[in-house]
Design a protein that fits this description.
- Helix 5 packs parallel to helix 8 and helix 6 packs antiparallel against helix 7.
- The longest helix has 23 residues.
- This protein has two domains: 86 residues, 3-Layer(aba) Sandwich (Trna Endonuclease, Chain: A, domain 1), CATH 3.40.1350; 114 residues, Four Helix Bundle (Hemerythrin (Met), subunit A).
- By secondary structure, the chain is α+β, with helices and mostly antiparallel strands.
- Helix content is 50%, strand content 11%.
């Protein structure tokens, strides 16, 4: 199945031959080809007076995987008035896929699970669950779900405070956890991971969810709420 970019590449190749005085046949009928080629059909044929050119349009990857084209070129050289050209085109890079953000319902479930882990003394696991819930909540609130390159943790916290999603005091508390969160992710066991600090983070995330729920009840889902004592941005 030929893709849209491939069809466009064939059309552009045909245009180049036309600009050089050739009459072009795209997806030519078998009757236009020499009998010596059997059932082979190129992407297009370009004809100018007694000159006939069979043209195959390929990406670099397809060319590397088509060694049989050497035999095709050899057969064309045996036919008077014909030659075989290969037009190598650049295949477009695939569009980057945006990561699917964690649903808020799942984020709330993880936050609830973190409470049980914290009670059991597993502060590292609790912190990771709290942080995933935090990032999901903040990214939803500041409208960053469609950004291809997400904010780094510190930048996310500063943006959330600037947009009134969290207070300055909350940001300061969460920033203390960023290096600890990074250490845990990289397989370290930070000694300074205190229970009170992890619990404070859990309470902040819980508060963010509560504010989101209040906004939803008020019919202002997605609206940014100013931090206490902070004027609304215009």
């Amino acid at each position: 199945m030929k893709t849209e970019w491939y069809t466009k590449a064939v059309d552009e190749t045909a245009r180049a031959y036309r600009d050089n005085g050739y009459q072009v046949h795209i997806s030519p009928n078998q009757s236009l080809l020499p009998e010596e080629l059997g059932g082979y059909r190129p992407d297009l044929i370009a004809v100018r007076k007694d000159e006939h050119v069979a043209v195959e349009v390929l990406s670099k990857a397809d060319l590397a995987g088509s060694p049989e084209l050497k035999d095709v070129a050899r057969q064309f050289r045996k036919v008077p008035g014909w030659r075989f050209d290969i037009a190598v085109v650049q295949e477009p890079e695939p569009a980057p896929t945006r990561p699917r953000m964690l649903a808020l319902q799942e984020a709330r479930r993880r936050l609830s699970l973190s409470k049980r882990l914290l009670a059991a003394g597993d502060r590292a696991a609790a912190l990771l669950l709290i942080w995933t819930a935090l990032e999901a909540a903040l990214r939803q609130r500041i409208g960053e779900v469609a950004v291809e390159k997400p904010f780094a943790p510190i930048q996310l916290l500063k943006t959330a405070q600037s947009d009134g999603v969290i207070s300055e005091a909350e940001r300061t508390t969460l920033e203390q956890l960023v290096p600890l969160r990074n250490a845990i992710v990289h397989g370290q066991d930070p000694e300074e991971l205190g229970r009170n600090l992890v619990e404070a983070a859990r309470q902040i995330v819980k508060a963010v969810f509560e504010r989101t729920r209040e906004n939803d009840r008020g019919g202002t889902s997605g609206a940014r709420r100013p931090s206490p004592g902070r004027p609304t941005r215009r």
